[in-house]
Amino acid sequence: MNVTLRTPRFILRPAQLGDAEPIARYLNDFEVAGNLARVPFPYHLSDAKAWLRTRRPNLPVEETNFSIELPGAGFAGHVGFHRGAQGPIIGYWLGQPFWGRGIMTEAVTASLDWFFEATGADTVYSGVFHFNAASLAIQNKLGFTQTGRSTLLCLARGAEVEHIDTKLTHGVWKAREK
Ligand SMILES: CC(C)(COP(=O)(O)OP(=O)(O)OC[C@H]1O[C@@H](n2cnc3c(N)ncnc32)[C@H](O)[C@@H]1OP(=O)(O)O)[C@@H](O)C(=O)NCCC(=O)NCCS
After folding, report:
1. Domains of the chain by range and CATH?
2. Per-residue pLDDT at 63
3. C-alpha 93 – ligand 1 centre gap (Å)
4. Is residue 35 lining ligand 1, measured as CB closer than 6 Å?
5. Radius of gyration of the chain (CA)
């Protein structure tokens, strides 16, 4: 789906072929790739181009992805949804130069506002590898609750890693203090 969202500080827009170079630059960083399940390491420009070719404009709404575009800096990271066994899953990453400024909290908040409204979904699922305190802090802050533990293959580490599974219901999202 072709959606653009405006947050107070930046825009979330559909991925485009021109994102390949910064995607490759920021994902070829073990501090980023090692916290994600499906990103190989090292990560090459060809990986970014191959992934971008899968981002066709007619994808179902549950497969919507956004590039985070900061004024002045351009592409900074990504937030997106995909379909999991239980329901929609949200995932996200930010290039390391942009960490620690509340950018992902702002991006995930806008994405969830849009997603619940656009899909009528009751629940969005997510989670973090057990060592990912920053991502867990974002999810705790936004109302996600822990549902259990599992193991998930981390491509960059080439290993199964303990994963904290989380979920956020639409009811909790609507009731949160803004
Ligand atoms: C995780 C990630 C998205 C965070 O992006 P960000 O824009 O820096 O996040 P924010 O600034 O919005 O929020 C981070 C929160 O984590 C907290 N935090 C950061 N490091 C922390 C740590 N080591 N322990 C506990 N909390 C931590 C921050 O204080 C902040 O919470 P606050 O706003 O309540 O102070 C970014 O570091 C990243 O892309 N990491 C690699 C990929 C990844 O982990 N993706 C998520 C996979 S589940």
Report:
1. 5-175 (3.40.630.30)
2. 95
3. 10
4. yes
5. 15
Task: For residue 42, say if its preceding peptide bond is cis, omega within 30 degrees of 0.
Answer: yes
Residue from 61, 26, 60 nearest 41 by CA:
26
Q: Is the CB of 148 under 6 A from ligand 1?
A: no
What is the distance between the alpha carbons of residues 125 and 165, in angstroms, rounded to a whole number? 8
Residue 149: name the closest of 90, 138, 136 by CA.
136
Specify the amino acid at residue 102: G
Ligand 1 site, residue 164, Cβ cutoff 6 A: no
Q: What is the pLDDT of residues 103-130, one digit of tens each?
A: 999 999 999 999 999 999 999 999 999 9
**What is the structure's pLDDT at 117?**
97
| Mutational pocket test of ligand 1: of 35, 39, 82, the residue with most ligand atoms within 8 Å of the beta carbon | 35
For residue 100 and ligand 1, the question of a CB distance below 6 A is answered with yes
